[in-house]
């Protein structure tokens, strides 16, 4: 019965289609030309070519030659049998030349170009191909890995440069176009909309990303995301993908963040960041209910580090930070971005909620400790490598602030894990905090050495606080 029914339904469908076709007049070349001639030439629905004409001359292809440490790229190279069959990288010093392909955007007629840090990082030779296949050698002016922004320059004049728009005016649903060099095939344009704003995906330290469904692929990095006037609103940076290709979830660094970094790189060659000195956490509905708020807003101060701008201004544990300089704070990432983009020495107006009342505090922001724009501190001789393949360091106040490590977490900080070591294989990574060794509490390097010295041939049984997960786990490291 099912097959008969399907057959009858198919017959009705065919009849319906044929009947519909009979109502449509036949199209001839003359009739098509006549219909097209009635459409106005400036119809914006027919083409986005005008947008491409405005923006594409300022988008360039970038080829960067890099030296790659093959051992770090391929941990199996630690295995002699693997090296026997696939070659030994140590025969050429353990390094090989690799080429990175990406994109960039000309921002001034005298040759300044913005791109992603990961496109030019560790590059020894950078070549820029302009529209018309003209190739120029570029030099790095400055890079900022923490936002994945880089500034390079070519020796040229009168170059086509892009107009920069205010990315704060973007709205979800706005049409945007991505321009770049995907897979090295040459300049390509794709179309989409702004899918979301203020995204954080954990890829870099400071994120406030534009999400778009415009197709972005490897090689698009550093390329332009433009609005329908051909103005730059973002720099394409990353994708979420299961197979490495576009799946409709791409991310761009907004111009307002990127150009703050660019101006600092132009002026000083480095980025001077301010910091507050608090460990923030999100406010959920339960926390909002406890504080008497209708809905979650702001960020909860879990702890305040000593001798920091926050402690000096009177911010306390349990305060909720609602805004900074009239900018509403919605999550910890946003707080970090707003503070880091403020000038060092700036007195920020920080609105907090305490005991059910809002209060404004003046906070003089200071330079983030340990930045490369500040004088390098004297190297601390407080590292230990007693556990094979693992380097640890005592937790100083500076390290706590830099790593946003809670005050109640004690132990030694893992600052290095050798690729291919037993520790790396069982999941110990840089940034972990070793709290215990074989049930012995660890508060400093002396405790760490003593606990390991009491061990046997058994694996070292470690209690480790994972910063990324915010919890402690046990790891057994074979000796």
The strand count comes to 27
Overall structural class, as computed from helix and strand content, comes to alpha+beta
Silhouette: globular
The CATH topology label of the largest domain is Thrombin, subunit H
Architecture of the largest domain in CATH? Beta Barrel
Helix fraction bin: 10-25%
Summarize model confidence as the mean pLDDT: 80
What is the highest CATH level, the class of the largest domain?
Answer: Mainly Beta
Strand content: 25-35%
CATH superfamily of the largest domain: Trypsin-like serine proteases
N- and C-termini, Cα separation: 71 Å
Overview of the structural elements:
With about 475 residues, the chain is an alpha+beta fold. It has four domains: about 60-155, Trypsin-like serine proteases (Thrombin, subunit H, Beta Barrel); about 165-270, Thrombin, subunit H, CATH 2.40.10; about 275-365, PDZ domain (Pdz3 Domain, Roll), CATH 2.30.42; about 385-475, Pdz3 Domain (Roll), CATH 2.30.42. Helix content is about 20%, strand content about 35%. It contains 13 helices and 27 strands. It has helices at about 1-25, 30-35, 50-55, 70-75, 80-85, 115-120, 255-270, 285-290, 310-315, 330-340, 395-405, 420-425, 445-455, and strands spanning about 60-70, 95-105, 110-115, 125-130, 135-145, 150-155, 175-180, 190-200, 210, 225, 230-240, 250-255, 275, 280, 300-305, 320-325, 325-330, 345-355, 355-365, 365, 385, 390-395, 410-415, 435, 440, 460-465, 470-475. The strands form five sheets. Strands 21, 22, 23, 24, 25, 26 and 27 form a seven-stranded antiparallel beta sheet that branches. It has a six-stranded antiparallel beta barrel with strand order 1-2-3-6-5-4. It is globular, with a radius of gyration of 28 Å. The chain starts with a helix and ends with a strand. Mean pLDDT is about 80; it is low at about 1-25, about 30-40, about 70-85 and about 375-380.
